Amino acid sequence: MASVAANRPKSLKLVKQLLAIPGGSGREKQVAKFIKAELLAAGAEESWFRLDKANKLGPIDDAEVGNLVVTIPGTIDAPRRLLMAHMDTVPLCVGCTPVKKGEVLESKEKDLGLGADNRAGCAVVLNAACEILRKNLPHPPLTLLFTIEEEIGLHGARNLQTSLLKKPALAFNWDGGSPTKLTVGAIGGYRFFIDAHGIASHAGVAPERGVSAIAIAALAIAKLQKGGWLGKVTKRKKSGSANVGVVTGGAATNVVCDLVKIKAEARSHDLTFLNEMVAQIETAFHDAVKEVKNIDGETGSVEITGRLDYEPFRLADDDPSVEVAQQTIAALGYESELAVANGGLDANWLFRHGIPTVSFGCGQRNPHMSTEQLNIEWFHQACDIGLNIAVAAV
User: Is 317 marked as a binding-site residue?
Assistant: First the structure.
């Protein structure tokens, strides 16, 4: 079918309404309620809506709501398509008042972010579905997915009840940046929580009886730095990054510190190399324990827990979702570019769940900052792309 254009005044109104709804991670209930109400008003049926229990599986005990899944029956014989975006914003954006200033939207409050990451993505997906329903546009079977808790570790996508999606053949995610940049891969990330335990003693009266947890941590970190395993890491033409971001410990200068808590991370586009970096970091701390002893030959210990936040992935250039995305953008007169992200996306976990997913931007600038803006023209382009993907224009 021929390309179709989204209704610009309606889509702009929709994104403004979404931006004004408070909804940080674990507090997405009102966002989900608004999305459902808009779809029902456009002609959706109650039986199309489901909430999964991802909120019961994430890190927030009182998280309000799970992922919202909407399955829309098709009117043409074509493979099911998934359109998705995450509902939560970072805390900086909660309570903002969106205002138009020239060709952008921004927060009226100078100390708050806009929350276009990712209410703009929600607006793209919601607008496409509402236009289809209101105008009775021919369309394939559609699944809409609005995830929770993306901003605190992709927990909504990680804990997604995939059986609710009805096995989509093509999948598309809207998040930050240019609407014609297709993110077809993303880095993998591993997070460490390390407790270095020493033996406390009086630092003036009996320092020799103590085992300094600070010394253990310092030795481990120094070894990693010297070995090239911190910062930008390049070994044998493989690369990644690692960082020790938080170190806390100690109570007084006259006590040999017996506990240091460390938070660290490692990232790579290569899962094998990511695992190697994880092993190097763990080994450095275990080795450091052996090097710090008191007068009695006693050592401290180290407890290391960690989790894979998201696996790296890279879609093939001929993946069906990539091809449809490129063809749709070309049909609208735009030029697409392929990119790989150095941060995690919900698409990482969709890929892990067996659903290769392409990610688009929808005009957000300066996400997670008080200077965040939404480029209105880019947002409208994203709405056109989303609508044409949803109706299978190509």
Answer: no
